[in-house]
Amino acid sequence: MTDTEPPRPGEIAVELPQRFDAGLYFIGTIRTPWKTRAECPKNPREAGDAICTIELDARYAPGLEGIAPDSSIVVLYFMDRARRDLVIQVPRHSGKPSGTFALRSPVRPNPIAVSVARIVAVASTRLSVTGLDCLDGTPLIDLKPYRPAVDAASTADENRR
Amino acid sequence: MTDTEPPRPGEIAVELPQRFDAGLYFIGTIRTPWKTRAECPKNPREAGDAICTIELDARYAPGLEGIAPDSSIVVLYFMDRARRDLVIQVPRHSGKPSGTFALRSPVRPNPIAVSVARIVAVASTRLSVTGLDCLDGTPLIDLKPYRPAVDAASTADENRR
User: Fold this and answer.
1) What DSSP state is assigned to residue A120?
2) Rounded to whole angstroms, what are the CA distances from B126 to A40, B55, B161?
3) Which of B121, B151, B9 is nearest to B54 (CA)?
4) Which end of chain A is less crowded, N or C, counting CB atoms within 10 A of the terminal residue's CB?
5) Residue A48: per-residue pLDDT
6) Of the given ranges (A64-73, A110-119, B36-45, B152-161), which has the lowest mean pLDDT?
7) How far apart are CA A159 and CA B152, in angstroms?
8) In 3D, which of A161, A25, A28 has the Cα closest to residue A102?
9) Cα B65 vs. chain centroid, distance in angstroms?
10) How far does the CA of residue B54 sit from the closest CA of chain A (Å)?
């Protein structure tokens, strides 16, 4: 969906600010088996053991020092095909209007996805990982070591689905 | 630390690209009890039950529809005082050089923090939460519902610290 298409019935678009407040560098590219949105798994669990490759730009190569296989990593990436102006969306799977911040939809003011992946192998600036479900060619924004104290909800059972 | 200070011994800075690849909107502000970096808790666990307030800009208010107390939320915020050009850093606590992507340091090409917070109360565009450890006035970038399938490592025990 692009900004030029009208919202679906029940959806609400807002006027975004005229200027950005900060800038992002794309620091690499995520290679996956999925070339279209329709092919993408619905979530990382559905992606199963599919191997994706995180290709970091050579400029940032030393930044991988200390990253090893068999650890978990938080991957931030930019969903650059999504419109950014919807505050109420009607997801196809539910058909019910919901606030953007109550959804994991790529459509949001800042279309940054956060996903925890498992590192299978590291070869120079390429990380082979499982647990991602994004489109092939997705721009990479950041990698962080996974820390349960920061990243896991302590009492998240009621959110489990 | 700003870009104008020299890196510490053992640290490596790179030349960043001349242009940004995408833009961010600051969509609100995080109010916390901590006015300086020295006052900030070292991690969310140390922050304990300190209540912080996420103030969403009125423009995006409908986006909170469906967000309720006693749930966990993924908070993305921008660490706008950090330099962005270090690929190897020497954290004060360890004194050992490490790759930026193996650290949770605010110093990184895209200084976006990800933290899971617990919603205590919702009043219009203000969310009272626990679990954040950032500076007062930190710009908000995104809120997402916490989903263990995406956000929790399935076998993260060896990362636990």
Assistant:
1) E
2) 35, 5, 32
3) B121
4) C
5) 79
6) B152-161
7) 12
8) A161
9) 23
10) 13
Which residues from chain B sit within 8 angstroms of residue A65, using beta carbons? 88, 97-99, 102
pTM, full prediction: 0.92
| Residue A132 banded pLDDT, cuts 50, 70, 90 | very high
CA-nearest of B98, B145, B112 to B24 is B112
In one-letter notation, the amino acid at residue A17 is P
User: Which pair of tokens denotes residue A110?
Assistant: 């800042």
Enumerate the residues of chain A whose CB falls inside 8 A of the CB of residue B60: 14, 87, 100-101, 109
Which pLDDT score, from 0 to 100, does residue B1 have? Answer: 47
Residues in chain A: 161
State residue B156's pLDDT score. Answer: 44
> Terminus-to-terminus CA distance in chain A, angstroms?
26
**ipTM at complex level:** 0.91
